Prior knowledge:
Blueprint: E1 3-4, H1 10-17, E2 22-23, H2 25-28, E3 36-41, H3 47-59, E4 65-70, H4 82-88, E5 89-90, H5 92-95, E6 100-105, H6 121-134, E7 135-141, H7 143-153, E8 158-172, E9 186-196, H8 199-203, E10 208-214, E11 218-224, E12 229-232, H9 242-253, H10 278-294
Parallel strand pairs: 1-2, 1-4, 3-4, 3-6, 4-5, 6-7, 7-12
Antiparallel strand pairs: 8-9, 8-10, 10-11, 11-12
Helix pairs in contact: 1-3
Amino acid sequence: MPIRIPDSLPAARELEQENIFVMTENRALHQDIRPLKLLLLNLMPTKITTETQIMRKLANTPLQVDIELLKTASYDSKNTSAEHLDAFYTTFDQVKAHYYDGLIITGAPVERLDFQEVDYWDELCDIMEWSKAHVHSTLHICWGAQAGIFYHYGIQKHELACKLSGVFEHEVVKPTSPLVRGFDDRFFAPHSRYTEVHAADIEAHPDLEIIARSNDAGVYIVKSTDSKNFFVFGHPEYDRSTLGQEYERDLKLDGATAMPANYFPDDNPKRAALSTWRAHAQLLYTNWLNYYVYQTTPYDISQSI
């Protein structure tokens, strides 16, 4: 089934070139079924890249999904053109009266700041509070996961001695969870962050459960016991080249930057990285959409809370 996005969105052209089923707005208007309504709060600086990465995962499912793109009004992006933001993004004031089957909150390169120091923290808190009554299920990614688990459950983040960057092996610790249905017992996922949450803090909270973790990268997937909130502390949506691009960016700022772990073949940055996480990343998004959104949300979204 297709993903429905604006015909002129840059991601539409790239996804169509990859032979991913993208439905035009005109065609969607003539269908009688109700698509899932998702809101994507994109906090990443390279918004077009992140749009494409996440929509690639959402599009490769048997469900029709309508996506609205949300930006912060309290902070202006410096890496995405105003024309793109004006054409494709909305603000919280424009959507807060609506209801959604799902919400995705992306990461952001602000993890070394205290939450209250982030320019749009108050606005993000308003959105997360609003989601309790207007969103059936929310998926938080990387810094978005750290922000969400702090706001909803009081779990603090902690700064690492150095940046955690690379592709790490993980294990499923709750194989009965539908979220990891189809996962291998051990799988790979990329991380790129300066902070972490502690497993002991999560295990001590009665409303949270750890689904997957890594000996090297720590906690990876956490969910609330009521299945309202999901927290993924890595970047499963990343393309094979994303960590390499971040490494080149960081090298320009600090020549001593360590290369991503387990990423370049033979630790040779001149060799193209291999994607070892794509299948599990797709399963993660598909399972969340199917088991925790589509299977449980009512036809009248306003009755889902």
